Amino acid sequence: MQDHRAEGCQEECFHPDVVERVRTEMPGEPLQEELAQLFKVLGDHTRIRILNALCLSELCVCDLTSILGMNQSAVSHQLRVLRDAKLVKSRKQGKNVLYTLDDTHVSTLIRTGSEHIREGK
């Protein structure tokens, strides 16, 4: 049985200098809400699989359907969510649409998250 007392102060305390510094240095609410929305988008297994694939190569929808073992409409839907969140971008090449990560921050998020998971094992 877990001791929940370890999660909170056992004695009332207050550190006004620390509290004020943290309050002023924290990002504003709009940025924190956008960050929470970003993590919601990243909280889907299929979208993470797509991002991991795109970390390795620019891919078209057909390539992604083959890699993921999913149908094209399901992959396209997830790509739309990722594009709306500015995590991936697309470009036309003839009759095909190729997808890449939007920028290096996305690959850094995926790589850092993976490293964090591996550290705990």
Could you describe the 3D structure shown?
The structure is a single chain. The protein is mostly helical. It has helices at residues 16-25, 29-42, 45-56, 61-68, 72-84, 104-119, and strands at 59-60, 88-93, 96-101. It has a three-stranded antiparallel beta sheet. Strand 2 and strand 3 (96-101) form a beta hairpin. It is elongated and about 65 Å long. The protein starts with 15 loop residues before the first helix and ends with a helix. The model has no long low-confidence stretch (mean pLDDT 94).
Shape: elongated
Q: Biggest β-sheet, characterized?
A: 3 strands, antiparallel
How would you describe the oligomerization state of the chains in this entry? single chain
Unreliable residue runs = none
Straight-line N-to-C gap:
23 Å
Mean pLDDT: 94
- Approximately how much helix is present in the residues? 55-70%
Strand coverage percent = 5-15%
The secondary-structure class comes to mainly alpha
Number of helices: 6
How are the strands of the largest sheet arranged?
1-3-2
Give me the count of strands.
3
Q: Secondary-structure element sequence?
A: HHHEHHEEH
What Rg do the Cα atoms give?
Answer: 20 Å
